[in-house]
Amino acid sequence: MKRKSLFWVRLWLMGAIWGLWPGLALAQEADQLATMPVRVDMRAWAPVPGNQEQINACVPWAAVYGAGSILFAQRQGRIATEDGPRIALSPLFIYNQVAGGSCLMGAKVEASLRAFQTQGSVPIEQFTPADCQVQPSEELKALATSYRIGGYKKLFPAGASETVKIQRMKLMLAQDYPVVVGLNIRRNFRHIRADHPIWEPDQGNTQSEGGHAVCLVGYDEARQSFLVMNSWGPRWGKGGFAWIHYRDMGRHCDYAYTLHLPEASQPDLAPLGGALELRVMDLYHGTEMVQMGEAAARCSRVQLVYDQGEYRPEKALPDPLLFQLLTLDPAPDTYLYIWELGSDTPPLAVRPGDSSPTGPHSGERLIPGASLFLQPSEAGPEQEARLLLMFCRRQIEPAFLDQLPARYAACLGEPSKRLDQLFGERRLPAHAIWHAPDQIMLLAKEAPETTIATVMINLKPR
């Protein structure tokens, strides 16, 4: 995870620039946008989206349960894996103290953030009353001081342009700061489905529903959208998350705030992992074969889904299959090894600092190269067109890589068990790694340098 203290100082300085020299601020923001990652996703740190039920507590749900829980999870290295508890802070600890005693009253955003800064909160399991009038005990108030934020910042003034809103929210997300936003939603916002988790404000029932607060936990340049965590339970959207197009966020967002924690006495933990994109080349246009250069320009991103321990494409891939892997915002000290499971060829190694980046954006790299492609072998009985990605901080010994195909062939069982036999305790189990549900992205807690985090890509559709 990125260190934040210096950036937060820059943020407060930028706040002064925003007010005094808006033209200069936009120019500086544009410079920062040019070097930002093309995709940010903080679901690894987020609690399971909760449900505010009939209590109008969307602001504390977005600010405390959403943004606050993510920040403290980042500070403590608490990735949302199967074998580790997630940090989830109580929104009602704040709401019940600031809302004025009525469950129908919304909580004002600055009053909620001020209470979060001065009082803090507690883990949600310690304060989950069904009654919004119940007040926390003095004992809980004392415990809550361990979960106080250090401060908060409004990102833009009333009447800001859509461009300013979008830029400043992306700048914060790019530094791993979740963003609390207030939206003017419509009735169709309630009906975002898992099979199409995108808000389209101008389709369906467009009747106004008033204001609603949500937490932004990422963005995706390919989608041109922000990733939103809501407080209507996991049945809303896709597991409680959905996408909102930049344009629609600019139109419907009234306010946006970021939070920061007090200075840490210990350095942040650095998780192990990475993010990639699978790109395929279509050699045919209709029934005519196209030239290699033209096909290379027509490479397209493959939509993948994490399912039963591996990533799979949602649709069948072209045949013959030529593909590339695009690294996204790679960690500078991470080694990546790519191997076609069961093949006789040793893994392809991508070392930190290997050549210059060749991707379309800063910090990216196309594997095997800008005009080169990978092609799977003919699948035999021991091969199922799977790729194995291995992430580690220490270089794997070349002799081990050369022997890996033969050693894997000598192992028994299904692929995951073979990998356990091959790597032993060096390989992190799947339940200790967080996997993004809809892109090749994994994060694991900090571990010894010899640890290897692996993930498989099955090139056959679900």
Kindly list the characteristics that best describe this protein.
22 strands; 2 domains; 6-stranded antiparallel β-sheet; 8-stranded mixed β-sheet; single chain; globular; Cathepsin B, Chain A; 11 helices; alpha+beta; 24% strand; disordered N terminus; 462 residues
What does this structure look like?
There is one protein chain. By secondary structure, this protein is of the alpha+beta class. The protein folds into two domains: 37-260, Cysteine proteinases (Cathepsin B, Chain A, Alpha-Beta Complex), CATH 3.90.70; 270-458, no CATH class. Helix content is 26%, strand content 24%. The protein contains eleven helices and 22 strands. Strands 1, 2, 3, 4, 5, 6, 7 and 8 form an eight-stranded mixed beta sheet that branches. Strands 9, 12, 15, 18, 20 and 21 form a six-stranded antiparallel beta sheet that branches. A six-stranded mixed beta sheet has the order 13-14-22-19-16-17, with no helix packed on it. A hairpin with a 4-residue loop joins strand 5 and strand 6. Helix 3 packs across helix 4 (91-98) and helix 3 runs parallel beside helix 5 (109-118). The longest helix is centred in the first third of the chain and has 19 residues, at 58-76. Mean pLDDT is 83; it is low at 1-14, 16-25 and 285-296.
